[in-house]
Predict the structure.
Amino acid sequence: MLSEFATRACDSMGREREEAPCPMRTAFARDRDRILHCKSFRRLKHKTQVFLAPEGDHYRTRLTHTLEVSQIARTISRCLRLNEDLTEAIALGHDLGHTPFGHAGERVLNEVTGHFEHNEQSLRVVEELEGGKGLNLTVEVRDGIAKHKKAQKPMTPEGMVVNIADRIAYINHDIDDALRAGIIDAIPAECADALGRTQRERINLMIGDVVACSEGSAEICMSRNVDEMTERLRQFMFDSVYCGSAAKAEEGNAERIVRLLYAHYTDNPGDMGEGAAAQTEKYGPVQTVTDYIAGMTDRFAVRKFMDIYIPKGWNKF
């Protein structure tokens, strides 16, 4: 049933550590399940997408973003008869390495360490950190996780699908959140005319365009017009929402929290827990502190900051 361009599990390049095959699931299905059941995946529900600690219950988190990417990617893969298990595994794992406070946390870790990319950290989570030895995923899933940013090109069409689905998802759901929050009133008229006036219309059009342009090819792409209008919409979101809007008013405080936590744990590595010494010996102090902070949820980071830096009242009982 799969397209000639689909990546078949039986042709997988395999895992770093050889394992006996599962009698019920393909290698890619096993990878999907391992990601779905890991702790790093569960922590995504308390990590920022765009809005920091929003009061409303309907704003996206990193977890809901991941699920929306997965849904869009699976729809495209199904229409193109690609491998849905591989697509879903990559989609579910693509943001496991994201920091607390969204891209604000990523910026600080990049500044203080000299280099930090959340896609590289996501790969690190599944290769090294989760469960103490990684998840031992297949080469194809790890490649898709590492190369899910727009400028990169994964080795499989399924990875390319997640790459483009990530872009479709975050642009459209961030517009929905920004409209709900009153940050914007509408999208540019030229984008609405070309792509649709509602989230449903835009997502349907973008998915249909990707399917139409990619049918019968190993390359996954949008048509030139839809791609240009999508990029125009993305730039509008950077200008109106991602940079300097009321939604970002607390990012300075979030950045200070991450910066101060990094400074504290660099000076006090023992405060990261009993496993910190072994991690430091294995990976070095900078990488160990980076891994610890990148793995935090927003609320855990705030709690640790308060424990370390906020004076506590003195009580005598």
The longest helix spans residues 157-181.
